[in-house]
Design goal:
Order of helices and strands: HHHHHHHHHHHHHH
Number of domains: 1
Helix content: over 70%
Largest sheet: none
CATH class: Mainly Alpha
Structural class: mainly alpha
Radius of gyration: 20 Å
Strand content: under 5%
Number of strands: 0
Number of helices: 14
Length: about 325
């Protein structure tokens, strides 16, 4: 029982960063943009939040955890939104190839994070010495009283702020896309930008806003990883392939942020399953890490055969819009 509880908690912990990334990418893809720069944007968001908290804590004799908390979030949102803005300008205004720009942004973001992470480590006294414990404690604070409930307290109420925010964000984005006029307009832009344009919807504006907003949400996944998961430290290349798992989760969730909630925890469980299976060789462990991608491929095959419209990607996904061709 204790082993199962531990596994579930670890699976949730692994899945939160993936959920932020998937939610942000779903919002972006609903506009017709395919942003493969999400892994890099998560790196940018993570290091920006850590840098903001680091310089704040090291500039104060008695730093306030709540102030560091706010600074970290603002820095993360600014950096990741800026990454989304770069992608939007290149793909929407300049009409550059979305795949090339996205992959370039991922390469840049990973390099950006590792470079500044290493630089801050040297300022802090050596590699691996970055520490923003006061700010990290604010992010990792459990829900008072409820977290003390036996069993349920550990299972449901023992996580930090960003864990719950990831679920709330996914639910809110689902409501926005399905229940609001702006959300319906956004979906119309993703399905047929020419038709949406003819109906008086500003296609470029919706694409810009969706892409920048999606990048900001994804960036919070990077902040979660460094503040809640790692406890306010930085590890070069520590994100692993979580950014790519977030993009894969978009398919598993069938472009529905609410479905991504359970999907992220499933991915988190599959990602660490090899740790709980005794007697596996190194090669077998690597095969276990492939399970999330295998599940995604199976779901993609099944949904493509059923051919339900609501389970398909936006019709214009990945295609640049040229108004003069309308």
């Amino acid at each position: 029982m204790n082993l199962l509880m531990t596994f579930i908690q670890k699976a949730i912990g692994q899945g939160v960063a993936i959920l932020f990334g998937a939610t942000g990418e779903i919002v972006t893809e609903k506009s017709g943009n395919l942003n493969l720069g999400i892994p890099g944007i998560m790196y940018m968001g993570g290091i920006a939040g850590l840098m903001g908290a680091f310089f704040y804590e090291n500039g104060k004799e008695n730093p306030n955890g709540f102030v560091g908390f706010l600074i970290a979030i603002l820095c993360t949102l600014a950096a990741s939104a800026f990454g989304g803005l770069i992608y939007s300008f290149l793909t929407i205004t300049l009409r550059a190839n979305q795949n090339v720009v996205g992959l370039s942004l991922t390469t840049f973001g990973v390099g950006f994070g590792n470079f500044f992470g290493g630089s801050i480590s040297k300022l802090a006294g050596g590699v691996g010495q970055i520490s923003v414990q006061t700010t990290a404690a604010a992010f990792r604070a459990k829900i008072p009283v409820l977290s003390e409930i036996p069993v349920l307290g550990d299972l449901l109420f023992s996580y930090g702020f960003l864990t719950y925010l990831s679920v709330v964000a996914a639910i809110c984005m689902t409501w926005f896309l399905k229940r609001t006029r702006s959300g319906l307009n956004l979906r119309a832009v993703g399905e047929s930008p020419a038709t949406a344009d003819a109906a008086g919807i500003n296609v470029s504006r919706y694409k810009y806003i969706a892409t920048v907003t999606g990048a900001a949400i994804a960036g919070l996944g990077g902040l979660y990883f460094v503040m809640e998961y790692l406890g306010g430290t930085w590890s070069n290349n520590g994100f692993g392939d979580r950014g790519w798992l977030a993009i894969a989760l978009v398919i598993l969730a069938l472009w529905n942020p609410a479905r991504a909630i359970w999907g992220s925890f499933l991915f988190g469980g599959l990602y660490i399953l090899y740790i709980y299976l005794p007697g596996l060789s190194r090669a077998t462990q690597e095969l276990c890490k492939m399970l999330p991608y295998v599940v995604t491929i199976i779901v993609l095959i099944i949904t493509s055969k059923r051919n339900k419209q609501e389970n398909q990607p936006p019709a214009s996904l990945g295609n640049a819009y040229f108004r003069e061709e309308r």
